[in-house]
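Quick log. Single chain, no ligands specified.
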Amino acid sequence: MAELDRRFCTAPMMDWTDRHCRWFWRQLTRHAVLYTEMVTTGALIHADPTRFLRFRAEESPVALQLGGSDPQDLAHCARLAEQWGYDEVNLNVGCPSDRVQNGMIGAVLMGHAQRVRDAVAAMRQDVDLPVTVKHRIGIDDLDSYEFLADFVGTVAAGGCSTFIVHARKAHLQGLSPKENRDVPPLMPERVYQLKRDFPHLEIIINGGIQRADVAGHLQQVDGVMLGRAAWNQPLILADVDQRIYQDQTHPEPSALEAAERMVPYIEQELAAGERLHHVLKPLFNLFHHCPGARQYRRHLSEQAHRPDAGIEVFLDALSHVRRAPQRAPVAQAS
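-> predicted structure:
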């Protein structure tokens, strides 16, 4: 399997980065590595994996993020990921919610580095896919750089060579998951230091990154991962192939061109029984700052949830922006 180029990635986000979102984002960038929502090992083992794992080959490169801590369960799910054609398996060691903590999932695992090491080793033993870890810079009072470096060194001994680091610590008590994405201060210097101290590892930075930040981060680490910025303003992905990957064969699409590329997919999904508002959810912010965007969003908000809503709802919404400038203004990279 070809080595993944993770210079630019989109983050795994619960209830957001489903297969419809990934298909849409793939219309904007061919090269960025896209990550699924977190899927727990229990869901894959005890339910029909088709519900969670189905995706189209055209979405690739795409990584499956797993939530779990039992090495054998994770190895089983990694085998499923390989069978379904995913390009990478990523272990969630960053989610701070109470619900996942109770299942020994997410950021709580930063306090159990040996368990993460063993889980990585079990997955690496069973699959040829890259096995990566996404984590915070610390948890609660375990927030020193020495703790972070020890965690990375321990997990690397299990065979992990790629670490995606959210440059905030997580508070396991007292803050909601949403607050944990904003309240703890960003400390990118610690992620930069990891790269200096572990030059043989691939270090990718995540957390509060905007389009204008990308170039600066790439001078310090191997890759960047954007989450909410890409969701709130999808068109920032449109020049990733040219700007990050120097691929001039993929012209930057306008917002309207990206929307029109989605029409056949939307029609196919509706014919298969999918609801319109589910398919259109990632396109809601596509025309960010464009004239007509408010009317576009209002039309979708009012009409797309109807049980009988069809493709005409989307086409009618597009009528509000067809005469507007096609490319939304976005902040220029430094």
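The longest helix spans residues 255-271.
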